[in-house]
Amino acid sequence: MVKVASGAEGEAVELTLGADGIQRATIILDSYSYTPSHLIVQAGKPVELTLTSVTDIVPHNFLLKEPTAGLDVEQDVKAGKTVTVRFTPTQPGAFTFYCDKQLLFFKSHREKGMEGRLEAR
To answer: Out of 40, 71, 86, 107, which could bridge 14 as a Cys pair, Cβ 3.0 to 4.6 Å?
Structure first.
């Protein structure tokens, strides 16, 4: 089942396990934000995220780096494009995902608040 945030900003979205055993969600990448920005998943089960950029010019990316939990995701998302990432968190925990894009002399997107949280239970 695909879940897209329908509540308040920052509200947690719990992914359900599909018939094929994959947890899926769509994340919207906008100007310095991810929606939803807090996902709850089951550890040990595959996760598939559809990343959709709704910006016209500014590219973003999605980084989720926690090798001890089997998480090593780095995916660019060009302005106006959609990509899919797949991973399986191997252990429970709370992990930060973020965009590290930056224009010369400006703060990075992460410094402007473009980060979220993946909670594996």
So the answer is: 40
